[in-house]
Amino acid sequence: MVAYLVIVERENIFTVDASTEVAAFRITDPLLSEWTLGPARLIEDPFADVAASRNLADQSLLVVEPGTRVRLQRHGVGQLRIQLTADAGTTAGRVELADSSRISLGDWALLLVEVAGRPLVFPFRGTLAVGDDVAAGVDSIMLNGTVSVVEEQLLGKTHYVAGGEALDTGDRVQLWNKAPYGSVEPEPAVVSGFVRAEAMEGFSEPVNALTLVAHGQADYVQVERLGSAGYHIHAPHWARFLHDPLLAASTAIIALVALLFEVLSKCGVLIGGNTGKHEKESGAEVEPDDRGRAALRPEARPGEQAALTREEENPK
User: Fold this and answer.
1) Per-residue pLDDT tens for 287-305?
2) pLDDT of 206
3) 253 domain residue, yes or no
4) What is the pLDDT of residues 152-210, one digit of tens each?
5) Res 6 pLDDT > 50
6) Distance separating alpha carbons of residues 81 and 74, to the nearest angstrom
């Protein structure tokens, strides 16, 4: 049973909690990609200048279509950049204005959003990459963060924390599932989360860049780090001995039973040894006489031993 508890595959839910200057994801659920914007400028041509942008009033609603690749970028408490990219010939989404009019977007769009007066929160569901590869020309990176993994117990719907890792500045994080049967390439995992951009003004201290929290089921998290080959974060099977209550209880019971058998075995050896010693000592004192009777042979003084000898030689 213990081997089964250790080997059997279980559901792993990863949580990424990071402060970052850049995050990218591909939308899979349109219900979680309707975002209220602050005052913004809309650029629909990647080669156009900012002067050719269109002004959007506060409280405009951005609706992102499934399949669109979204890139959020912000430095400090400055302007938020939202870049939308869709497949050629498709639409990345639309902007619904406060006067009930709408703007249909092409396969590329860039929004420059002012974060003023209140924080902006953008929920999403899709595949995720946090941070960027540190290289020449890259100006937006992950600042810090953590990755934790929660594993499902074998029985019931409960979960337990199976481990976690701290992320360094400049790391790039992605969540992956193992390659499906018949394929050699892993697949990006779909997660749910949100990005929060805090306003510079307000009652709280301004938080630099973007705060991102994402949860999702995956097989492992890939961390790419400058100066190394990177590594994977997953829930190792041996960690279940530390974190899985059912496995810990089963192991404790087996250890207790083994200890009990060991104690009983030692007691049996001690009892058997004492019994053999007693029988050996008794056999030295009791001997059968010539008539088949048992005669006691205790140690005696010389005079008494002589009297016993004469009595045996001259029985009545």
Assistant:
1) 555 554 444 455 555 555 5
2) 54
3) yes
4) 766 656 667 778 899 999 999 999 999 888 888 999 999 999 999 988 765 455 567 89
5) no
6) 6
Specify if 1 maps to a domain: no
Q: Tell me if residue 253 falls in helix, strand or coil.
A: helix
Tell me how many domains the chain contains: 2
Report the DSSP beta bridge partners of residue 85: 69, 108
Comparing CA positions, the residue from 32, 54, 73 lying closest to residue 191 is: 32
Dihedral-angle region of residue 157 (phi above 0 means left; psi in -120 to 50 means alpha; beta otherwise): alpha
22 vs 170: CA distance, rounded Å: 11
Shared domain for 70 and 202, answered yes or no, is yes
Query: What are the tokens at 211?
Result: 């705060």
Regarding whether 227 and 170 lie in a shared domain, the answer is yes
Query: Residue 98's closest CA among 63, 56, 64?
Result: 56
State the amino acid at position 57 in one-letter form. A
Least confident of 54-63, 172-181, 279-288: 279-288
Q: What is the 3-state secondary structure (H, E, C) of 60-82?
A: CEEEECCCCEEEEEECCCCCEEE
Residues 228 and 255 in one domain: no
Pair of tokens at residue 167: 């992320």
pLDDT digits (tens, 9 = 90+) for 202-234: 545 556 789 999 999 999 999 999 888 889 998
User: Residue 314: left (phi > 0), alpha (psi -120 to 50), or beta?
Assistant: beta
Which two tokens mark 54?
Answer: 């269109």
* Same domain (yes/no): 15, 68: yes
Q: Are residue 263 and residue 203 in the same domain, yes or no?
A: no
Name the amino acid, one letter, at 280: K
Range of the domain at 286: 248-313
Tokens of 6: 């250790």
